[in-house]
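Final report, Chapter 2: Outcomes

The project's central promise was a pipeline that accepts a single protein chain and returns its three-dimensional structure in a standardized token representation, suitable for archiving and comparison. That pipeline is now operational. To close this chapter, we reproduce one record exactly as it appears in the project archive, with the input sequence first and the structure output second.
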Amino acid sequence: MSINRRNIFIVVAGLSLGFASCRKFMNVNKDPNITQTATVQTLLPAAQLYVAYSLGSDFEVNGSFWAEYWTQNPNSSQFRSVEQYAPSQDYFVGPWSEMYTAAENFYQLTKLADSQKKKQYVAIAYVMKAYTFQLITDAFGDAPYKQALKGQVADSNILNPKFDSQRVIYNGILADIDSGLKLMNPADAILPGADDLMYGGDMTKWQKFAYTLKLRILLRMSGIDPVDAKAGIAALYATPGFSLIGPGDDAKIGFGYSAASKNPLYAEASSTTLAGTQNLVGSKTVIDSMNSNGDPRAYVFYELNSNNAVTGVPQGNYDAVLAAGSFSLPSIYVGGDANNAASGNAPVNFLTSWESYFLQAEVAARGWATGTMSDQSLFYAGIKANFDYYSTGLDAIYGAPATSTIDSDYLTGAINGAPGYWTVYPAAGTVQDKLRFIITQKWFAMCGNQGFEAWCEQRRTGYPDFLVVSKNTLIGQNLPKRFIYPTSESTRNANFPGLASITTKMWWDLY
């Protein structure tokens, strides 16, 4: 799946950024040859959009397939190789190049903004470069980092960057976040405005984003390096001014504010090439679990089938002969209905309030830091934050204002007659008992809206522990563990270390 770069041009055209200037940064192994017309006001939105378009399309599709939110429509064929767990190297050229393009933009932004003494732009660029490289390494594993982004003569003219280990990359992105936090100052006289597509220059929210991102990274290390992870989290919680993302702080880029601005997943599916082909359908794995728990979000994340029910297709069962209306499609709220223009309005989420609460719940459950809320309270706060975020959809389905009671109805069992299994937090259980519920509820909340992150968490923790192997797997009774290095890197970089199997685990993956 490739990103429609024309949309990037259209969206930022109003910010005076031409598509040609975006293309200057396309290859980390070539001289970007930045023109003198590049400004901090054009570099920032261009970089943010490159991340959003890849995160909202390539990363979302693969993550949502392998986290078992979506599966291949039996009546179409685009993602059959994904369901076989055997996509080709060419399949990953897009996400690799787009993320490095974004990283290059953020790197150049740090230099340009620093030369102009625009510290808040530098701060955002540091943190977003860290965010981008976490996506890269969590998807591909080892990757060019220290020598990446240095293709210009002024930056050492490194055309064949060496690959760094995930541990080295993690250390680097943690340092970048700290560099950004040191510079962040909401009272600075020079702040971004509308050119900051995520927060509009609100540096208080950027501070929360940076702290929450750092917490995500440290918890990702919790299995492989619990000593450093625990110490890092304790230090983080003790930081003066420490604050995390909460309701209203969700980091996202919105779409649908003009005819040319469309959610990237929908933009791709409705493009001239695919012409509205509906390749995505709901997976039986998550839908059955939601239905058995009386979870009303099933009706927000998916559409009703011809029997006015939410029904999924078994994972990878694309050989089945099924009537088009017998299963459910991903809804407009996650950009998944290829033939409904309302899908173009779905945002791309970077970090969310529910993710933040579930991260905090895990910290509390492990006993690694003390906050103002218990792990149990944070667990339920994560569920409520997700319900509140999708209040428009819940109200439309259940009748406004459904959100005033629908989350409590879910938790008390008023919908199904008894509380669902995943709603009863094991407050007296073991740490693993608690983590099983925290991560599984995070999985429900991220359904189709943070698919890549949900897949990362499943690889890290083993939860949910009821995923199934695709019915058309070509790798036996295994689940995918990584993206495959693209041909663009294996054929052009003299320091390419060789292909890794799709079953080769990440550094932090112990399951």
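Archive annotation: The mean pLDDT is 92.
This record, like all others produced under the grant, will remain available to the consortium after the project formally closes.
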